[in-house]
Fold:
Amino acid sequence: MENTTTPSKRTGGRSAAVIHNVRTAVEELVEEKGQDRVTVPMIAERAGVNPTSIYRRWGDLPTLINDIATYQLDPSRPLPERGDLRADLTEWARELGEHYRNPVNAALLRGGASAAGERQSNCLRNRRIEANLLLERYPDASITDDDILDTVVAPIVYRVIFLPWTLEDTTAEHLVARLFH
Amino acid sequence: MENTTTPSKRTGGRSAAVIHNVRTAVEELVEEKGQDRVTVPMIAERAGVNPTSIYRRWGDLPTLINDIATYQLDPSRPLPERGDLRADLTEWARELGEHYRNPVNAALLRGGASAAGERQSNCLRNRRIEANLLLERYPDASITDDDILDTVVAPIVYRVIFLPWTLEDTTAEHLVARLFH
Structure:
């Protein structure tokens, strides 16, 4: 239950609990009902928060779905640190593939895709930030963030959306190998 | 108005007219109302066909949307023939990018994305068929259809869905260059 005098973007304490409860509610409801049958009032009820708290924080359902779809790939988590760009990227790509092999995350990404286009996707923005954090460690690499997005992230996202059964244990390694070939 | 004794998969004459009218109706309605507000009865009315004709041919709305989203990239159209794999692929990729710079086609692709995952996408299947047709002309090329899908098609589709404003005149050329670098 969010106190309305609390700034809605505060990330500690009660606010963090709201985010956590809303995220769990969305994941459960998507799994139970399918992503197109989930509504904001339904999420609010399950999370034990007021619908207005959801609208205030996320604006609308597509934004919420987009946000939740990538929440587990928390941009503040530690990134792989193997001392080698190729190894770091491979592990990072493997994490991304693993995340989306969970059918709930894949369904949420598809939902986010249908709502995307007019707004910048958090999924994309966070992956680009991370690609740049990895690149910063290796200033001599001749690879750019666009190369990583196009060659590694795009094929994973494309498979998640259109061909989830082609995501394999070796996909990340293959894609990163292509980047270095 | 489709005669119910006509095999529903016949592609000439009346059947072709039904497909054409349904396609036009979907494009107009998506542009007017946005993709999530379009329904089968609405399409049927606009196209002057019975809703059952639509259900019989396409099964459901997501399949219809998926189908229509890629109809203009008719798989029987002539493919570029420049006598050089790189030139052919560049022209082919440019065509794909051009197709999806039309906001209606992009919206339809996003709609198809949200319905994809459980079924094979026509968009993807047709692009793979075409990639193989192009490759067959150049048996000495060391490129595979997977390379083309991952390196050229996936980044275009990814941009169309999540970052349409980054699709530029030079995108196709850049992506194909990466394949040959």
